[in-house]
Predict the 3D structure of the following.
Amino acid sequence: MVFKSETVPDQNCERSQISISDEDALAQAVAYVLIQRYSHAKKIALNTPDPIPPLNNSDVEAIIKKRLRATQFHRDGLLFQIITWLWSTTTSTPDEYVDPPHTQQASHGQDSIILHLTSDGVSSITVCEDKATENPRDTIRDEVWPEIEKYEAKTRDDELRSKVVMALSRQHSWEVAEEAASSIFWDKVKQYRVRITTPPPYDTGRPASKLFDGFASVAPGAISRRQANTVFMADLRGWMDTFAIKVEEKLRATQEKTANVR
């Protein structure tokens, strides 16, 4: 595994601290996600690599230009969403469907979802909010809580329904998938997971326990509805700069080898 996780006590939610144990393997996995080789990316993250055929050089260069040389804000948001997707998919069970990440630049709103499936439908849906930020408390209060409030107010149920239909159609007919999605009691299935980067002093102690104040207000009910993953980064932008270079190198290693012509 390229990740390690430690459960952290928190009065607001079920929280774990995630750390990266193998940056080189993670860069390879992220590179595979960027070229839509999701199964290969998961195997890399689980330390069970599976080689892929070489890619066209122009395709690789286009991905590097559009995804890794975008503005720092968008690049870092995209990379963090991919990293958190890898974390989710490597820790998922056979009864969970983890929505693949979008490889366009990250934007506000729903970052990803996890469907917890039963033999005939969906038992719960985890809506994930992924934020790479140097100001976690402000981001949670000003960006994450308002998004969760929209889901609680049922203004985004149509988006979730679409995700459910698409996921269930992988295992059942469209008719069965649509019927299962239409029978969901949305108020009873929604839960939330906030995944965010944290700088000092949020790595340990009391400050970190205050990060998620207000979670129970925007998502009331059992604490299992409220989950959080924190990823400590002392220098977020510096780490992302270095990591993006590693991902670029891994992408270029997938290119076709062109023979020298004299």
Observations:
- The two ends are 45 Å apart (CA to CA).
- Confidence is low (pLDDT under 50) at residues 106-110, 258-262.
- Residues 11 and 202 are 15 Å apart (CA to CA).
- The first helix runs from residue 23 to 34.
